[in-house]
Amino acid sequence: xxxxxxxxxxxxxxxATLGDRLAALDPVAAADPSTIRAVRAPGRVNLIxxxxxxxxxxxxxxxxxxxxxxxxxPTDDRRVVLASDADPILAEIDLEAPPPPRGDWTxxxxxxxxxxxxxxxxxxxxxxxxxxxxxxxAGLSSSAALELAVAWALSGEAPPRIAPLDLARxxxxxxxxxxxxxxxxxxxxxxxxxxxxxxxxxxxxxxxxRPVPLPDGLVLVVAHTGLxxxxxxxxxxxRRAQCEAAVATLARYRPGxxxxxxxxxxLLDAHAATLDPIVLKRAxxxxxxxxxxxxxxxxxxxxxxxxxxxxFAESHASLRDDYEVSxxxxxxxxxxxxxxxxxxGSRMTGAGFGGCTVTLAEAGAVDALRMRILGEYADRSGxxxxxxxxxAVAGAGELA
Length: 400
Ligand code: ADP
Ligand code: MG
Description:
Elements: H1 15-25, H2 27-31, E1 37-46, E2 58-59, E3 61-75, E4 79-84, E5 87-94, H3 106-118, E6 125-132, H4 142-155, H5 164-179, H6 186-193, E7 198-203, E8 209-213, E9 218-224, H7 232-253, H8 265-270, H9 277-301, H10 305-321, H11 328-338, E10 343-349, E11 356-362, H12 366-381, E12 386-390, E13 397-398
Parallel strand pairs: 4-6
Antiparallel strand pairs: 1-3, 1-13, 2-7, 3-6, 4-5, 7-8, 9-11, 9-12, 10-11
The protein binds adenosine-5'-diphosphate and magnesium ion.
């Protein structure tokens, strides 16, 4: 299957093939295939609620059937040896003496082991092979999928002795503390707690969540700009600092404000003059985006597709103009998709600066949409897009 078309599901590797890959590398697994286990952890696409998770706000991601899958054999030697089809470097970790960060993908493996141990969970060695259809650095959370898949393999028990939400927080800690990315909880939550056929609304302060079923007859289309996320980490941390600056100022006027979650537009307007103009724009995005998530939940439930499309458009414009994390390629993809027949909303998804868009489209409109993106977008941007139709799937679990 070409990566530029078709369903994400058709690219997934099956358990038997992945098990054979492990057996080819691991004589014990080859001699006794019953020792082989397999786990899957999905990437995610966020429908709406961007850059709100670290502001204690609302997000609406769906786990999708672009996945990281690991076949593994638990061992009792306190060692992890894991090969990835995406990177020639092998993750080799002594669980008794986990190495410091090295600046490569093995940091996610070590970080997850350290975070599990810090949470008092048992960790078990294993030999494993990993295969992934989540594009790396595309804003579909390959990193969270990696952490969740590794956490399941390390736990030595299926399911792990801990609720999905708690496992997500452990994975987030791995990324925050060992990899050094100050991400919020959305990605790990989505990969851990996804629901088939639904997005899941998460309140990032209370951690309460509820499924939001996708309207019948609509499909999710994910389109990749062909542009890897550039300048991501520094700009991301700068946005976080600007949000914190807004909170620090506003809290002087209204005690009890602990995050932009606590701010509404009236309060922001009342104190606009006291904020640095850039900080004001960043805060305005977050305040309005939180309101849009709740409005989108309602509109999806009522099948008010006109409102869904408007909220997606407003979210994209706000990320482009106020939060300033879009780029010409994302804007062009959204322009093309939003103008296609049978489309009920399109916007950038993930942190921005490249990566992907998410589009809600009628099932019968997807082929024409894909052709337009592959033709018009490629011509006008000079880049090579990729397009997937994705299903909303369950969070991380055993691979049957
Ligand atoms: P995103 O989560 O949006 O895909 P990140 O920069 O957060 O982007 O995470 C990407 C990193 O995750 C990669 O640089 C790599 O270290 C790790 N990673 C993701 N997928 C794989 C994979 N299949 N094999 C090895 N490492 C991976
Ligand atoms: Mg990531």
